[in-house]
Amino acid sequence: MSDFNIKASVLVHRIPVERPVRTSFGTMLDRPSVLIRLEDGDGCVGWGEVWCNYPSVGAEHRARFLLATVLPLAAELDLFSQPERLWPELTRRLAVLAIQTGETGPIAQTIAGLDCAVQDLAARRAGEPLWRWLNQAARPQVPVYASGINPDGAAEAARDAIAAGYAGVKIKIGFDSELDQANLRGARELVGSDVPLMADANQGWSLEQALDFAPVCNELGLAWLEEPLRHDAPDADWIALGDRLSIPLAAGENFSSTDEFEELPERRGLGVLQPDLGKWGGAINMLAIGRRSGALGVRFCPHWLGSGIGLMTSLHVKAASASEGGYVEVDFNPNALREAIVAACDAGPRDGSVGLGESPGIGEVEAAVEAFSDCCVMREEWRTAST
Q1: pTM of the entire predicted model
Q2: Which strand (E) or helix (H) includes residue 35?
Q3: Is CATH 3.30.300.130 the right assignment for the domain spanning 6-128+372-383?
């Protein structure tokens, strides 16, 4: 084992909300997060976040798996000081366990969050912002759009998001065809014809339902239609729908292998690719996907709908990718922890984009996280054997 000593803190927050976040497949009654804080022997700190939105009890499960399995194995394999090896080595070593438990998603998500924390730690040790540590030639200006807009009051929320400085807005659909149409038409009327307007059906439709809705998407000139079909729908269904659309199809948050990211954009006729670094792949894989996006013929638009740690990491990786076009998704629903982290990093939108600063790593987030200790429902510490 290496003498690279690490103390890890795994924190589960549940942030209360007055208005639940609705999707076609479920509702979030609070805003959960699983945060990983790594501290080395020199006092340098790195932060990462694990995707944990569903099921509602999933946050604590992922946190305990990190503590019981992922962190000890990372120490055994001497991976904390080797960011480039962490994802492939942990994925290889835990592959059989993923099959045995049937928990491919939670295992990939915990590795992904840890990868982000290790990448952040490495950047801070180098005294560099993450965007520059990943790419010395990167530019720290990242276009952003507002997302997660509920079906109730959607048009007004879209108007407010544009007024708040976002470049575009995405509305959740897949509930009821009449309601979906009314929301998109209302939003288009309020934000104007030149503002990018997107729609996300969250895998809620059959092919027939999606084909029926396609003329509305074309008429409104949507920037893209996201996940209209289930991820496991046949490629032929995606192609059939794409043939009826004059706008791009978007997907990627539910892709779970390098092969899917390499092959599905062409096989399904996608125009927008949306990896989620807390769900699969971490920062290292999302950076590689972003750099390949041009060759894949897609716009690179990182997906995120969690707390501020994952959002800040997504912004830095998007900047480092130097990919042309595309945006980072920013949840427009209230989430006090996310908002505090964004404010601490001075990463609010201005004129459609976010400017990333010169602070090491993803920014100064420590105080913002600690301010929400009353919402922290689980906090456990872990150390390498020699600390």
Answers
A1: 0.97
A2: strand 27-40
A3: no
